[in-house]
Specification:
Radius of gyration of chain A: 22 Å
Structural class of chain A: alpha/beta
Shape of chain A: globular
Strand order of the largest sheet of chain A: 3-2-1-4-12-11-5
Largest sheet of chain A: 7 strands, mixed
Largest interface: A-B, 56 and 56 residues
Order of helices and strands of chain A: EHEHEHHEHEEEHEHEEHHHEEHH
Distance between the termini of chain A: 44 Å
Helix content of chain A: 40-55%
Strand content of chain A: 5-15%
Oligomer: homodimer
Number of strands of chain A: 12
Amino acid sequence: MNILIDAMGGDNAPKAPVMGALEAAKLWNVNIVLVGQEDAIRAAAKEAGCDTLPANVEIVHAPDVVDMHDDPANVCRKKKESSMVVGLRLLSEGQADAMISAGSTGALLSGATLIVKRVKGIRRAAMGPAIPNKAGSKTVLCDCGANAECTPEFLLQFGIVGSLYAKKNLDIANPRVGLLNIGTEDTKGTPLQKEAYALLTDAHNKGLVNFIGNIEARDTLLGEVDVVVCDGFSGNVLLKSIEGTAYFMGSLMKHKIFKRKSKLFGYNPLSIIGYLFCRQGVKEVTSMMDYREIGGTQFLGIKKTVIKAHGSSDALAFRNAVKQAVDAVNADFSAELETALKQLTEENADD
Amino acid sequence: MNILIDAMGGDNAPKAPVMGALEAAKLWNVNIVLVGQEDAIRAAAKEAGCDTLPANVEIVHAPDVVDMHDDPANVCRKKKESSMVVGLRLLSEGQADAMISAGSTGALLSGATLIVKRVKGIRRAAMGPAIPNKAGSKTVLCDCGANAECTPEFLLQFGIVGSLYAKKNLDIANPRVGLLNIGTEDTKGTPLQKEAYALLTDAHNKGLVNFIGNIEARDTLLGEVDVVVCDGFSGNVLLKSIEGTAYFMGSLMKHKIFKRKSKLFGYNPLSIIGYLFCRQGVKEVTSMMDYREIGGTQFLGIKKTVIKAHGSSDALAFRNAVKQAVDAVNADFSAELETALKQLTEENADD
């Protein structure tokens, strides 16, 4: 399997993507293609103590770089020779199975849409990160920021694509799909939610999704829903407030524990053990919510696997994104998705 | 000062509101008026070991009750004799200074708007809970669910009213107002955010708010913003995902710690101390995010103090809501708000 990595994307490029690629190449039987400025990539590899690249890591030179100020809509036209666009072109030409980039989300999304193309019938590609939940499983949030403005039909499609993702990538037999809303009653929300509720109910009755109705933000992590359907704006708010609160709780916990320790230190040595003891528990919990562990976010509805890694991804994050890409390629569901969408429109035509 | 409590509102009525009222009456120099079915209220007081009510607690009988199935829009007309509507009427007639209810949010909001009325110039009343942040201060989220659909002008007004609330109720000298968005660049978001950004910038230039620009959901708890402006839908998602994540992290922490304890129990007694030691830290942190500690949510932009207590409020929550009501009455800023809105429209007329 061939995985492309945009070596110039993200805050820590090229060092982090190159190091992550080298680690991944060691760990898994996969070929990695680093796309970007060859000299910079070789320098980063040297810095990581690797003078000659292993056999399963190659470089494809791309002189240009997409930066955060580039208008996402014009990147494909104006930055033809950037690492991101060259990578996506190789992917669309079938020279690789997946592409990973920590560069501009907007640029990667429009590039994936224009170059790699959407699955037939899909109106918009969505971002569907899978986050850990209380049940020990994962919950897919779809969409999480790719589409700030949505129509009810987009939300219906997010439910279908998210459901297939949960089935194939997370091995959930019959994923429970919930609509993010401000209350559970079917009269809640704006016209967008009310119309999406009707469309999802209809798709449920046709056996296309297992729609369980409206869910509230606080239910997301409780493990009572497998796929949360929402517009990209609220999905982004949901995801980032979960991240922020997890970070806040973790640091607050450390502070409380440390404060107690220093207060007791000298009087009660047990507190030190207590401190070390808690620290592990805190670490385990906060790391569960760590984006580096969660890995990147796959663009759902694109013909081939494209993964957006977090902008501040380090080597570990890139390494995990490679693993995620491999799994995603093995779980590819483009065909099933196309069939489901076809079935939906046909059934509607029958109405 | 006279505080009205809807004795029939909430999941634990009348017991919780009555017990909370009795506790509050003991703790603070305040008169409490319990509105609702007299027999039920007296029975609840007896159950709480109070056969005769103290001098500063009285009952106003209201035979009817607003329930969750009542259409909020019709409550004022169809449930004239309900505890909620009778209470709001007494408030508007000047027979009390504030009203607390744990009943239907929608009904309380439309009742407050129709009976107590909005401050002159305010388009919509907003819900502005103040939640703890990393800086040890509080952050106001405005709106948090009162208005699922908003116009840019609503958001501008939420910024102004939220800012005054932070100034007067939270003693923040020059509150930093941020617009909830999916990125910090001023080009981010839907047309709603883009237009609200322009209006808030304009108000900032006129010295009416200290607008610091777009903020992301993860920044909410970091204490770098004092007022988060958002439409009621995303605000509700933000608040409830913070609640949900805090609860999730707390229970996960307990689980991890407990698991370790039972694993080590018998072999290493220190782990038991460690466990007890952590438990306190976990408790401190989770209670910070406990709605009972946060208290109720004030409707901002209503002429008098109306506080929505959480539906599942217990006696402690009602007690804290009374304290909150007393503080809110003392910090009343209706006059300043009216002036600010007047100034804004005048300034705009000058443009």
